[in-house]
Each structure stands twice: as structure tokens, then as C-alpha cells.
Amino acid sequence: MSEKKQCCVVMRINLDCNACCRKARRIIVNMKEVDTHMINKKERQVILCGRLRPSDVAVKLQKKMKRRVEILEVEDLANGHGGEEGHEYEPPYEYSQQSDHMTTPLLC
Fold first, then answer.
1. DSSP letters for the chain
2. Which portions of the sequence form the region Disordered (predicted)?
3. Contact at 8 Å (CB) between 40 and 72?
4. CA 63 → CA 20, 66, 75, 82, 95, distances in Å?
5. Are 28 and 61 in contact (CB under 8 A)?
6. Neighbours of 70 (CB within 10 A)
7. pTM for this structure?
């Protein structure tokens, strides 16, 4: 039986609609072992970081969501900064360079 360790887990789960994303988010937020999370609806991925056992978190998410959960990648963060040199996370999307009223700071 493996110990809980500081790691990041990338899982694939079918998130059809916004309600599924909200439900997944609610379940993840209530997991004490998860420190940070990111839900990517377009790529059907959930990324969880924290002091956890990946298989236990996947089983818990699978039972509560009633959907198949697939563990794609586990990155151990206990040994330094991830263990892989030169590997940086690149998001599958780019931010827009346009300024709009939601991201432009207000000047008083």
C-alpha cells in the first residue's frame, strides 16, 4: 500500500456540460487532501495537486460523479521541483492580447 505523497495528477473525465463541471468542482473542493485544482472542460481533464494517493482520489471522484475516470499522468512533487528538467507546463490555449473592461485595471 503506497503512502500519500505530494503530487499532481492529470485525470480524464467526461464533462458534458457546465453542471457536470460545477458538480466536479464541488466534489474536489470538499476533498481535504487536494490543495489546488484545475478543470479543463474542453480537454476533458481535471488536474489535482496536493498530498494525496492518486488512485484513491480517482475512485472517490468516479463514485461521486458516476463517470469513468482515467489517470493520465502522475507527477511526484516530493523530490525537488517535479523531477523533470526542462519540462514546463504549456496550457492548450492562449490568452487574448486584447484589452477589455474585465481585465484592464481601473485608474482612479
1. -PPPEEEEEEEEE---SHHHHHHHHHHHHT-TTEEEEEEETTTTEEEEEEEE-HHHHHHHHHHHHTS-EEEEEEEE-SSSSSS-TT-----SS-------TTTSPP--
2. 79-108
3. no
4. 14, 5, 23, 29, 34
5. yes
6. 13
7. 0.66
Query: Any idea which residue has 472517490 for its cell?
Result: 60
24, 12 Cβ separation under 8 angstroms: no
Tell me which residue has cell 499522468: 73
- For cell 519540462, what's the residue? 87
Euclidean distance between CA atoms 83 and 102, whole angstroms: 37
Q: Residue for cell digits 523530490?
A: 79
Q: Tens digits of per-residue pLDDT, 67-94?
A: 999 999 999 887 655 444 444 445 555 5
